[in-house]
């Protein structure tokens, strides 16, 4: 026992902390950026080729892609058995195979990251400076901060929202350029040619080697400004004559704020299998050193830290575990009324719980909410065996036996009962060990931890407890034979119980009928109670999305975003926030923004995170033209992309145009249902587009092709990266564009000219083409027309087919089960064409799968217990008696959940499964003694079960109260993460209350009926055998 204790202490000290067991799907995102490209160009030229290759990867469960202006993000989710490293190798191979099909002028090739885009950053920093421009700040952050953090084990991706990467921007004055007869494409070519960083070779002489170098790189803005780009009127035209060259951000379409201050937001996302606590601890350990390496004018402000609430939640569970231990020991002391007698069973608690930590460490488990809940519940289980043992030994001492004899007789008599209790309780947990998908991964640690604790408890009860009883229990004397006040109460209760038993024995048929009614009532409650998947956690962080009109410019979006931020910061429960706008791979359209909001600690807040989110979104209605969606951050992230709300489903159809017809109809129908709230979709097909249409016949006369037009437009409006300046620590792009004022209005197209070849006129080409004698330029609108239309801002694919995500929340007092039914009904009501396919995503998808799993889980637990009990009792009748206790416990649990307003979710189901293991002990203890009385004392079934019920009433009451008191801290707890533990505590406590009140009377009656059935079956078997013998004799 000492070895178990020492190993357990060592294992406990080495166990890592986490919020939940590792249930993350191996997920990899592939991101590609192509500045200036539309969503349709990104889809056809970038996303589609990548999807074709990546879709061939074995083990791929889901592939979702989003293509928007200048960005493509493909999310690959693999099955749970897939190794992340193997998946990464396969993804890289897929990217390599697709490279030949991608645009040749991509600024950077596609990159992958081992990260789930729906997973909220585990740590965010606001980086500001009052003395340096953000472009300089990012330069330092990239080289001295972000790169070091990304090297930490477990970090999946480090991003800078509102990125202000330094670049040189060449802003062309289009009218001046045209006046010199120079086209933009010539400028682009010239810049590329005058800024080179290429190998030039070496001289390898007889004595020495000499490296050749050319001063090919541009060293400063002044050098670039003085560069000659052409000659006009026999004189040089320098870049400064037709352009302004400035140092600025590489992408001017990105902005971010820390609270109200313009900033860079550093987001750290973990790899799907990484431990959050370990990763953040490692970041915080090196952060002071990294901060000291930055200039003094740069300040770092932690904005959100996911580990704060994880640590607080685990701390609260530990306190509840300690409180449960104290309550259980208190129950033991009240019944045994002796300190030494209390110490003996109490030792099984620390031995079992601490000893299980050694096995947890060997199995690579963690101290998380579920494993600690398992240990908390176990405090009510582990003392059961010890209580049963010590109570039976005490009974022999009260009968006058000495301690050693009592210990031997008592342990021998009760040993089989303890083994039955232990094996049957573990049998309940067996189905949990073999559940697949998310539920199996989620509760594997829970089931193993609880099983190990129970096994250690049985070993302690069968070895240590009898030994200590033989040495420590007081023998019966006249002094301790005095009847205590509590004993008088127990005797009165037993007397009342005896009268109740006599009543049910006189009315056995009615009692048996009512027992059957409990099963029916359980089924009715299980059918009508609202269903859910997992409790909504309050982790003290809100994440949100702001949505503006599809026609909104960055200036409008930025202004609205700051107005929303001001409203959020006015809320008394908000501590800080980070927000950003622009397309950066996390945010996918220009008309959307993102928020990450840090709330006060739960004890200092006036409301839950969910209520605060609703309060803020209501206040945000005052911002005209903006819609704000907020949701609490969850530890269990099952989605593969960020969504406006907590739940979503995908609508698939091969024909993208069908979405524009049917999605608005479906959303309108869903909004009419009071069960659903905040219904929206990511369908954005109304983005304004100016289509520049080339007259190919006219264009041919000038030798103008679509490529010519694309180049000029891209050079003017696409933030085109035309060259790169390389330094020892970084690389800086040279961006070519028209002057900012030229990019604000569509009428600027009137001033664009194309390089072309013409004759004397556009219509006279008899003399053959010659260079235009004036400038060799052709007005853009001479060969094109502009037509306005709409096009998608965002294109979503699911498994390579067009799709759109419809997001929704659930109204108060509604459940996820009600919501899924409402969605399916709406689909039928609007007669959605059969070409559409609905696929629930994330939590909603896991919920649908769990509906069948939950029923299987309960049935499997019952079957497992039946098989084990059948083997132990060598009977198929008596296990039915034991299992008859289950409906009464389920009634208490389900009714309590319904009264509390809670859903029947995974935690509730686990509570019911555990009840199956707990409540059967009443029947086991009664039946063991009844069978022994029938076999040894030759008593009738009625006399035997009557005696057993009265004799075992005290230990049954003790063990039940111990389990109930162990559940009280979880049921009544209000600390961080209590919403996760609350349903489990409710189910166990009230299930035990109902079971104790009912099964004490129903078990004896069911036992009698099963005995009669057994007797009838034996007589029938004997009768058939005798009849067969007579028939054989008659035949002879």
UniProtKB/TrEMBL annotation:
Superkingdom assignment: Bacteria
GO molecular-function terms, A-Z: xenobiotic transmembrane transporter activity
Pfam families associated with the record: ACR_tran
An example Gene Ontology CC term for this record: plasma membrane
Major subcellular site: membrane
Keywords (A to Z) from UniProt: Cell inner membrane, Cell membrane, Membrane, Transmembrane, Transmembrane helix, Transport
Cross-referenced InterPro entries: AcrB_DN_DC_subdom, Acrflvin-R
Topology class, membrane: Multi-pass membrane protein
Transmembrane segments: 319-336, 343-363, 369-393, 414-434, 446-469, 509-529, 855-873, 880-900, 906-931, 951-971, 983-1010
Cell location: Cell inner membrane
Cited PANTHER family: MULTIDRUG RESISTANCE PROTEIN MDTB (PTHR32063:SF21), PTHR32063
Protein name, UniProt field: Acriflavin resistance protein
Organism: Commensalibacter intestini A911
């Amino acid at each position: 026992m000492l070895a178990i204790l020492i190993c357990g202490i060592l294992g406990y000290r080495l166990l890592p902390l986490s919020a939940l067991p590792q249930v993350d799907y191996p997920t990899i995102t592939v991101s590609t950026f192509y500045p200036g490209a539309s969503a349709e160009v990104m889809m056809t030229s970038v996303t589609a080729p990548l999807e074709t290759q990546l879709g061939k990867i074995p083990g791929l469960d889901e592939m979702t892609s989003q293509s928007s202006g200048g960005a493509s993000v493909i999310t690959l989710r693999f099955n749970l058995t897939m190794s992340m490293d193997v998946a990464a190798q396969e993804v890289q191979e897929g990217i390599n195979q697709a490279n030949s099909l991608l645009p040749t002028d991509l600024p950077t090739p596609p990159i992958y990251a081992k990260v789930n885009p729906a997973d909220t950053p585990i740590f965010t920093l606001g980086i500001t400076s009052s003395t340096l421009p953000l472009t300089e700040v990012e330069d330092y952050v990239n080289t001295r901060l972000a790169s070091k953090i990304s090297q930490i084990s477990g970090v999946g991706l480090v991003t800078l929202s509102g990125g202000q990467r330094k670049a040189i921007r060449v802003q062309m004055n289009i009218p001046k350029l045209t006046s010199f007869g120079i086209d933009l494409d010539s400028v682009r070519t010239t810049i590329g040619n005058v800024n080179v960083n290429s190998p030039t070779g070496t001289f390898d002489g007889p004595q020495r080697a000499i490296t050749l170098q050319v001063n090919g790189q541009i060293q400063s803005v002044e050098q670039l400004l003085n560069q000659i780009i052409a000659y006009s009127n026999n004189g040089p035209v320098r870049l400064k004559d037709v352009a302004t060259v400035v140092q600025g951000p590489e992408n001017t379409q990105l902005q971010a704020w820390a609270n109200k201050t313009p900033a860079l937001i550093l987001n750290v996302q973990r790899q799907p299998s990484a431990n959050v606590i370990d990763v953040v601890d490692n970041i915080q350990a090196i952060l002071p050193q990294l901060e000291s390496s930055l200039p003094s004018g740069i300040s770092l402000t932690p904005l959100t830290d996911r580990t704060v609430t994880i640590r607080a939640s685990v701390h609260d569970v530990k306190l509840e575990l300690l409180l449960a231990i104290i309550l259980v020991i208190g129950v033991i002391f009240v019944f045994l009324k002796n300190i030494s007698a209390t110490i003996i069973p109490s030792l099984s608690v620390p031995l079992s719980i601490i000893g299980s930590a050694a096995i947890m460490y060997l199995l690579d488990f963690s101290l998380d909410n579920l494993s600690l809940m398992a240990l908390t519940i176990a405090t009510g289980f582990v003392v059961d065996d010890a209580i049963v043992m010590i109570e039976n030994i005490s009974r022999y001492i009260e009968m006058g036996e000495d301690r050693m004899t009592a210990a031997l007789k008592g342990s021998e008599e009760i040993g089989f009962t303890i083994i039955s209790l232990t094996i049957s309780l573990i049998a309940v947990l067996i189905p949990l060990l073999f559940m697949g998908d998310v539920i199996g991964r989620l509760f594997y640690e829970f089931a193993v931890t609880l099983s190990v604790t129970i096994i250690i408890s049985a070993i302690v009860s069968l070895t240590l407890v009898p030994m200590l009883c033989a040495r420590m229990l007081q023998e019966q004397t006249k002094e301790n034979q005095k009847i205590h006040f509590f004993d008088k109460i127990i005797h009165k209760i037993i007397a009342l119980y005896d009268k109740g038993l006599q009543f049910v024995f006189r009315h056995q048929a009615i009692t048996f009928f009512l027992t059957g009614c409990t099963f029916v009532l359980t089924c009715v409650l299980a059918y009508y109670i609202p269903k859910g998947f997992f409790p909504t956690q309050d982790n003290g962080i809100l994440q949100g999305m702001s949505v503006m009109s599809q026609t909104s410019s960055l200036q409008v979006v930025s202004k609205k975003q700051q107005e929303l931020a001001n409203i959020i910061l006015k809320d008394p429960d908000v501590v800080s926030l980070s927000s950003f706008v622009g397309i950066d791979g996390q945010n996918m359209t220009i008309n959307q923004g993102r928020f990450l909001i840090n709330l006060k600690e739960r004890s200092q807040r006036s409301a839950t995170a969910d209520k605060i989110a609703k309060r803020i979104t209501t206040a945000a209605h005052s911002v005209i033209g903006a819609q704000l969606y907020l949701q609490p951050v969850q530890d269990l992230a099952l989605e593969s992309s960020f969504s406006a709300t907590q739940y979503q489903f995908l609508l698939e159809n091969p024909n993208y145009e069908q979405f524009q017809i049917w999605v608005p109809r479906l959303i309108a129908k869903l909004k009419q249902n009071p069960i659903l709230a905040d219904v929206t979709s990511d369908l954005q097909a109304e983005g304004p587009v100016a289509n520049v249409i080339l007259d190919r016949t006219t264009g041919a006369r000038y030798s103008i092709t679509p490529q010519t037009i694309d180049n000029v437009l891209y050079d003017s409006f696409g933030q085109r990266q035309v060259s790169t300046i390389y330094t020892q620590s970084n690389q800086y792009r040279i961006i070519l564009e028209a002057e900012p004022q030229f990019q604000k209005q569509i009428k600027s197209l009137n001033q664009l000219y194309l390089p072309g070849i013409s004759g004397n006129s556009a219509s006279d080409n008899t003399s053959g083409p010659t260079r235009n004698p004036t400038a060799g330029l052709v007005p853009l609108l001479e060969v094109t027309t502009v037509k306005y239309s709409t096009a998608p801002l965002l294109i979503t694919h699911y498994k390579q087919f067009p799709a759109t995500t419809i997001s929704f929340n659930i109204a108060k007092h509604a459940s996820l089960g009600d919501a899924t039914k409402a969605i399916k009904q709406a689909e039928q009501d609007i007669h959605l064409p059969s070409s559409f396919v609905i696929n629930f995503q994330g939590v909603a998808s896991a919920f649908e799968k769990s509906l069948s799993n939950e029923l299987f889980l309960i049935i499997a637990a019952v079957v497992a217990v039946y098989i084990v009990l059948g083997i132990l009792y060598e009977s198929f009748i008596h296990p039915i008696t034991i299992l008859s206790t289950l409906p009464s416990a389920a009634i208490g649990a389900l009714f309590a959940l319904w009264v509390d307003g809670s859903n029947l979710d995974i935690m509730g189901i686990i509570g019911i499964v555990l009840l199956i293991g707990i409540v059967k002990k009443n029947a086991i203890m009664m039946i063991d003694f009844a069978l022994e009385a029938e076999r040894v004392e030759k008593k009738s079934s009625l006399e035997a079960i009557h005696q057993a019920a009265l004799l075992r009433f005290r230990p049954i009451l003790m063990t039940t109260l111990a389990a109930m008191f162990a559940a009280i801290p979880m049921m009544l707890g209000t600390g961080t993460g209590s919403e996760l533990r609350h349903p489990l505590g409710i189910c166990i406590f009230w299930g035990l209350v109902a079971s104790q009140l009912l099964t004490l009377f129903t078990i004896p009656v069911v036992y009698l009926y099963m005995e009669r059935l057994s007797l009838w079956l034996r007589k029938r078997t004997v009768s058939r055998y005798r009849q067969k013998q007579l028939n054989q004799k008659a035949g002879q």
